[in-house]
Amino acid sequence: MSMAGNLRKVTGLGRVGGLRRVARLARRRPKVDLSHPARSPLGSSVVNCVTYRDGARVPGEGDLVDIVERVRKSGDGFVWLGLHEPTDREFAGIAELFDLHPLAVEDAVEAHQRPKLERYGETLFAVFKTVCYVEHEQLTATSEVVNTGEIMVFVGHDFVVTVRHGRHGSLGPLREELESDPRQLAKGPAAVLHAIADHVVDDYLTVTDSLQADIDQVETDVFAENGARVDPGRIYQMKRELLELKRAVAPLGRPVEDLATKPIRVVAPEIQAYFRDVLDHLMRAKEQIASFDELLNSILQAHLAQVTVAQNEDMRKITAWAAVIAVPTMVCGVYGMNFEHMPELHWRFGYPLVIAVISGACLTLYRGFRRNGWL
Q1: pLDDT-derived band at 274, boundaries 50, 70, 90
Q2: How far, in Å, CA of 234 to CA of 321, rounded?
Q3: Is the dihedral of CA 78, 79, 84, 87 positive or negative?
Q4: Residue 145 and residue 136 in contact, taking contact as beta carbons nearer than 8 Å
Q5: Of 163, 210, 213, 227, which alpha carbon lies 20 to 30 A from 72's?
Q6: 16-26 as b/e, with b when 16 or more CB fall inside 10 Å?
């Protein structure tokens, strides 16, 4: 039986036609694995399953269970099984085959987990939040800027099981990159774990660089001539998206630090040196996110101050015009009273005189307010 045939037995892949496609693709050994933005083209959660020995890819012929047993008996090589959003039923057989802890299996299937690192006996379970930048023509109050997913990694002495959630973060290019470096891949499953961690953290830095452009644009708009008219929803949206990125980056610090400093059986000391480099990049991403958050707070405060100043200017203009209008209102109100004996009421030049006094008073007030910047 081929490896594809055993995958059907373990995960319940499907019909014979699908199995033939698996076997045919396995024999061809494609340059890039069967990663897909959603589900596997095979119609199941299995993306790829490859055996590596001495850093080289071994053809995937034979029964998967036998291959795993052979790898374990020889103590040479390991199996890398990749899945995308498996169901409980699909993952049950795999969990039994690799003796995965039920709690870790539950986390891997349910997703929406916090980045973490846990040890279950001889197996290491790591959760990474993947992120990608969502391109947009113009930032609005409802624009999606950061999209997140998850990668769960089970690491043992002779296997790596990766479970991916989300429509991005494909590990196909990463697998291809590792296969081009047999010396690194020969270091075992821990090398795959490092490559995944490094890949995820590099994506953090890529996203922060893209966010920098959006924040610069918001800052430019706020401090422009009509900055008070900028929609504050754009700033709040940037803060919400930045918070989403922060939730992915911040909790990962402790797990990566543990991988870089603490003795772990499945992680050789020579691999820990590589994790220190990942930790350095992660700290850089965290610092950038913290600085972005502070900058957005400053931009928001500046925008609110501009709105307050603009409102004060509007109130001053309204007050100045109200004072100008108060003069004719007062004079007309006085002479509008129906008293018979009023000054200049029956004088021939009384009306022109009142109009002249009103105009002169209004003009004087207008020039005074204009000179003081109220109008």
Answers
A1: very high
A2: 34
A3: negative
A4: yes
A5: 163
A6: eebbeebbebb
Give the largest CA-CA distance in the chain: 124
Looking at residue 23, its pLDDT comes to 35
DSSP per position, 8-57 = HHHH----HHHHHHHHHHHHH--SS----SSS-TTSSSEEEEEEEETTEE
- Quote the pLDDT of residue 291: 93
Rounded to an integer, what distance in angstroms lies between the CA atom of residue 46 and that of residue 168?
16
> Strand runs (DSSP E) across 282-362, as ranges?
none
Q: Per residue in 78-136, pLDDT tens?
A: 989 888 888 888 888 888 888 899 999 999 998 888 999 999 988 999 999 999 999 88
DSSP state at residue 59: P
Contact 22, 83 (CB under 8 A): no
Residues 6+ apart with CB under 8 A from 5: 19, 23, 63
pLDDT tens-digit profile of 41-59?
Answer: 434 577 778 888 888 888 7
CA dist., res. 306 & res. 313, Å (int): 10
Residue 365 has pLDDT above 60, yes or no: yes
Residues in the chain, how many? 375
Determine the Cα–Cα distance for residues 365 and 372; give it in Å rounded to an integer: 11
Q: Which residue has the tokens 């691999």?
A: 271
- First-to-final CA distance of the chain: 89
Rounded Cα distance between 289 and 212, Å, is 10
